[in-house]
């Protein structure tokens, strides 16, 4: 290979990795922002991500596998890692915890969820802490009237927009999170 070919290949690989455009679903082959098929009849029978809208959530005929959820959450982390916390923010210049959950579920899973932590807290099915799974929303009561939300990436760690460090992964077993833990909700 020539030096020019190697440089071109390196630039292609560098440009092809990393940030996903806001509104893009990683597994969607069509244009950015397209949700998964809206009805099972419009989708391939073998496509586990197809579903239909029901209220604020998409009902999946077959939810994404644990491995798919982990891959999408890893992609979300790599795309948003270090984005600073900004109350009311919803972009790469700053984002709050509930907006980040909205972005993760919309852009990486094709699901609509409510905007605020309190609204998200009212959604989904409650799950015991000992039974958390990848993709579950985990909630914390961080003050007298304040709440925090993240999404489980495995049984021990969750992805969230931290008020002090921005988008990051934290352990559910950290003393602060153990003390403030409120509940877990499963939305798919």
Automatic annotation (TrEMBL):
InterPro entries: Murein_DD/LD_carboxypeptidase, NLP_P60_dom, Papain-like_cys_pep_sf. GO terms for molecular function: cysteine-type peptidase activity. Keywords: Hydrolase, Protease, Signal, Thiol protease. The keyword Membrane does not apply. PROSITE patterns: NLPC_P60, PROKAR_LIPOPROTEIN. GO terms for biological process: proteolysis. Coiled coil: none annotated. It comes from the Bacteria. Residues 24-59 are annotated as: Disordered. Pfam families: NLPC_P60 (PF00877). Residues 67-188 form the NlpC/P60 domain. The keyword Hydrolase applies. Belongs to the peptidase C40 family. This is NlpC/P60 family protein. It comes from Gracilimonas sediminicola. The lineage of its organism: Bacteria, Pseudomonadati, Balneolota, Balneolia, Balneolales.
């Amino acid at each position: 290979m020539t030096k020019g070919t190697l440089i071109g290949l390196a630039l292609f690989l560098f440009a092809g990795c990393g940030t996903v455009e806001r509104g893009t679903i990683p597994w969607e082959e069509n244009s950015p922002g397209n949700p998964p098929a809206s009805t099972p009849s419009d989708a391939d029978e073998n496509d586990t991500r197809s579903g239909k809208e029901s209220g604020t959530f998409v009902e999946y005929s077959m939810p994404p596998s644990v491995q798919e959820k982990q891959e999408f959450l890893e992609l979300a982390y790599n795309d948003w890692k270090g984005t600073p916390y900004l109350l009311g923010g919803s972009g790469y210049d700053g984002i709050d915890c509930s907006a980040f959950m909205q972005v993760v579920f919309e852009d990486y899973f094709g699901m609509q969820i409510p905007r605020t932590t309190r609204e998200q807290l009212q959604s989904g099915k409650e799950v015991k802490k000992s039974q958390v799974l990848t993709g579950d929303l985990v909630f914390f009561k961080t003050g007298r009237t304040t709440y925090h939300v993240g999404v489980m990436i495995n049984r021990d760690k969750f992805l969230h927009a931290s008020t002090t460090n921005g988008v990051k992964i934290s352990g559910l077993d950290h003393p602060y999170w153990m003390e403030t833990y409120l509940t877990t909700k499963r939305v798919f």
